[in-house]
Specification:
Length: about 575
């Protein structure tokens, strides 16, 4: 009765049978040969109908699970699910609380052997009536080609498949073909990634964890979908407000390295990745590498303090620019005087930072940058993972410019992990997108005393320096601004910049870190013509902290607990 479809060897094919119809109708349309076909088809109907019934019930059960907001109780019972014929479906991807980010539903593809279809137009008309999503003209065209195998529609629901089956048309086959579903659309698309029509992972976690997911095992990510939603909302509002071309934001646990949120905008729908151009599929948070600007002054200060190359009371001459060949190192808002190390950070002095780097030396600078993970790819579970762009020949000029974030391009997630190392007691942070994904024993990079001093300095930058617009009462945010001009055709363009801010909280005992970077923000009237990290990214991080801190169990505290007054390793004379 049916022609065998030329599907792949591992595909399971279910032939369409006949449904029960009045004998008078059959006598008008079927000859004796087709009556024989009918009897054969009827014999298969019971078995095939049972398959569809089981599949339909399975889909309804899974959709019921997806409708439940809190999946923590039931998701763990779904570590491996089965398709209509008992084979393992691709495993779910879930957030840290069990909310499903990607799942698989059993569906079907409708195929045909046109050579076995006697009346093409009638068959096309019947299919279009039974499944309104199908186009009668297109079905007619496909059935008229003379091939032995054609796809008529992919990913039919069990209900649609049953409708096609009920037509009882010879030459039609139904092939099991599960479909990957993304219940939250583009919300975490750069992390989750997407798969092809055969549910093979092509990007993101779908690709990097393809083997385990293909076996049916579920995977819990470190992401908190609640935080992901709030960060996405705030980042999108800032991009729109400053007419930027995009941006990225990350929320990181400073001890475990778990990424609670990773957002890259613009974004895309993982269910339809082909409809988005490359710029939307590009992960700015992990694949993009950028000169992060003055955020690097934190690393320079930490290196100098930890190595003994400088102390808090040392002074550095920032009275005039530094000439390097044909170029000059200048300050955005020059103080034109000697600056202490803390003042270099508070006033974000490029000149002072360059002076500190000279005292530190090229060899120690490279050693610390490598220990902080800034000279190699981050150990992140994503294939979209940018390699840092470092000088091929490291000259004295590079040592000075890298000290304030120019001449070395790294990814935002690398930057976030390295700053987390500065504030968590000095232990190296390896970022992870897998829940409980911390790797091996902790590696000390800085002394605990250096880390405590850096926490105080970062809080000082927010209280008295360029990061003031990030401050949220009671949460004791400490951080650093960064503004860098973008390289365009080998030259820095003053009108195209990256505006960034990194902040940790609460600074007396940091638990989380937020980094945000905005790509090409435009000056606005309400910012008095500025589009720098302090005006663009610092307020964004403050709003993110204010919204996510309660979700993460952190309550605001009395201002008398401020680290500025209570730090034990900072000279009293420098606190006020």
């Amino acid at each position: 009765m049916m022609g065998r479809s030329k599907a792949s060897a591992d595909s399971r094919v279910t032939p369409c049978g006949y449904d029960a119809v009045p004998e008078s109708e059959l006598s008008a349309t079927l000859d004796g040969h087709r009556r024989g076909d009918l009897e054969v088809g009827k014999s298969r109907l019971v078995a095939v109908g049972a398959v569809f019934a089981l599949a339909f019930l399975g889909v309804m059960a899974r959709m019921g699970d997806l409708a439940i907001g809190d999946m923590a109780g039931t998701a763990h019972a779904l570590a491996a699910v089965s398709g209509p014929n008992g084979e393992a479906l691709r495993g779910d991807i879930r957030d840290r609380h069990g909310i499903v980010l990607a799942t698989t539903a059993p569906m079907y593809s409708l195929t045909a052997n046109p050579r076995e279809i006697r009346d093409v137009k009638a068959a096309a008309r019947s299919l279009a009536v039974a499944i309104p999503d199908l186009d009668e003209t297109e079905i007619t065209r496909r059935l008229s080609g003379g091939q032995q195998f054609v796809y008529l529609s992919r990913h039919l629901s069990p209900r649609q498949a049953a409708a096609a089956h009920g037509l009882g048309l010879p030459g039609l086959d139904l092939m099991e073909q599960p479909k990957r579903l993304y219940p939250h659309g583009p919300l975490a698309s750069h992390v989750v990634g997407f798969s092809d029509i055969d549910t093979h992972g092509l990007s993101g976690i779908e690709r990097s964890q393809d083997r385990g997911l293909s076996s049916g095992a579920a995977l819990d990510l470190s992401l908190d979908l609640r935080a992901q939603h709030l960060v996405t909302e705030e980042l999108a509002a800032t991009i729109e407000q400053f007419e930027a071309i995009g941006g990225a934001a990350i929320v990181l646990d400073v001890d475990s390295g778990e990424v609670l949120s990773m957002v890259s905008l613009p974004t895309f729908d993982p269910a339809a990745p082909a409809e988005a151009d490359k710029s939307r599929r590009f992960n700015r948070a992990s694949l993009g590498v950028y000169e992060m600007g003055s955020i690097f002054k934190l690393f320079t200060a930490a290196m100098a303090l930890d190595s003994g190359a400088a102390t808090l009371t040392d002074s550095f001459d920032a009275s005039e620019p530094i000439r390097i060949g044909r170029h000059m190192i200048r300050d955005f808002k020059p103080e034109n005087r000697l600056l202490s190390l803390s003042e270099v950070l508070v006033h974000s002095s490029n000149i002072g930072s360059a002076r500190i780097a000279v005292a530190l030396g090229q060899e120690r600078q490279q050693r610390y940058l490598r220990a902080l993970g800034l000279l190699e790819r981050a150990p992140l579970e994503l294939p979209e993972n940018g390699r840092p762009l470092a000088p091929s020949v490291w000259r004295d000029a590079n040592t000075m410019t890298i000290s304030f974030g120019h001449g070395l391009a790294v990814s935002p997630v690398q930057t976030a992990a390295a700053v987390a190392t500065l504030v968590n007691g000095g232990y190296k942070v390896e970022p992870s997108l897998i829940k409980g994904g911390a790797k091996g024993p902790r590696q000390r990079v800085l002394t605990d005393e250096t880390s405590e001093t850096m926490r105080w300095l970062m809080r000082l930058v927010v209280k008295r320096g360029t990061g003031g617009k990030s401050d949220v009462p009671g949460y004791f945010i400490g951080g650093k601004t960064g503004t860098s001009e973008k390289l365009v055709e080998g030259r820095y363009d003053r009108d195209r910049r990256m505006a960034s801010f990194v902040g940790a909280f609460p600074m007396d005992a940091p638990r989380y870190l937020v980094l945000a970077t905005i790509d090409e923000p435009k000056p606005q009237e309400h910012t008095f013509g500025y589009a720098t990290g302090g005006w663009v990214a610092a307020p964004l991080v403050g709003r993110i902290v204010q919204r996510i801190a309660p979700l993460l169990g952190i309550s605001p505290r009395d201002e008398s607990d401020d680290l500025i007054e209570t730090a034990t390793t900072v000279p009293v004379a420098l606190r006020r």
